[in-house]
Specification:
Blueprint (H helix, E strand, L loop, with lengths): L1 H21 L25 E3 L5 E3 H5 L4 E5 L6 H20 L2 E6 L3 H11 L4 E4 L4 H5 L3 E4 L1 H9 L13 E4 L2 E5 L5 E6 L9 H14 L1
Parallel strand pairs: 3-4, 4-5
Antiparallel strand pairs: 1-2, 3-8, 6-7, 8-9
Helix pairs in contact: 3-7
């Protein structure tokens, strides 16, 4: 009976693993509630992004140097994102003492990142995903309605359209904690852009992730 139970459990795990691997996370969905973010235990994608100076770099290579916290935000035009960026600055020293590097990724261009960094007085790295490679590979991409796009642009924000797509795309705000092997140890993604992870909770998650290594 025990053998049968073990076989059933192994079968369930195998099927679950296949279902997870079969999900096309790069697909841009029309509802933020339908995104499929990368999960705990999955690896960071090997993609090229750009720093605030416009220089390309490998995300996977960057993560392999030390434990990393990656935060996805919608852009410097978003007041909820700016509030979160400032909160992250408040715990930046503690994260650094734990051995983490902090990267904040958005669809903003490098020049827009520079403005955000100066305006918010940030001393961690902002990363440009203006081609939406990271947004899609992390399973966070969703279309926004045209009327919302117009609202964003009316306040000076910019949205991104993929080639051949007539709709603009944004990332669902999210946080990922990686070990230096590039494996996710903690993940938080909320389709409600007004709700962000509390700094204290992120610190706790970061500490617990180190204990598992």
């Amino acid at each position: 009976m025990k053998l049968f139970s073990k076989l059933c459990l192994m079968l369930v795990m195998l099927v679950s693993a296949k279902l997870v691997s079969a999900i096309d996370r790069t697909q841009v969905v029309d509802d933020p509630n339908d995104v499929s973010p990368l999960l705990i235990g999955q690896a960071a994608p090997d993609i090229m992004l750009f720093d605030s100076e416009g220089a390309p770099f490998s995300l996977l290579e960057k993560i392999s140097k030390q434990p990393t916290i990656i935060v996805f935000y919608r852009g410097g035009w978003c007041p909820f994102c700016n509030a979160q960026l400032s909160q992250l600055q408040d715990i930046q020293d503690e994260l650094k003492d734990l051995g983490y590097q902090l990267l904040a990724i958005s669809p903003d261009t490098p020049s827009e990142l520079n403005k955000t960094s100066k305006d918010r007085e940030l001393d961690y790295q902002l990363i440009s995903d203006f081609q939406l490679k990271a947004t899609r590979q992390f399973g966070l991409a969703f279309h926004i309605p045209n009327d919302y796009r117009d609202k964003v642009e009316s306040i000076g924000g910019k949205t991104v359209r993929l080639a051949g797509d007539d709709k603009s795309t944004l990332p669902v705000p999210a946080v990922f904690v990686f070990d230096k092997d590039g494996i996710i140890q903690f993940q938080y993604a909320n389709p409600n852009y007004k709700v962000r992870i509390e700094p204290e909770l992120l610190l706790t998650a970061a500490k617990l992730a180190l204990e598992k290594q």
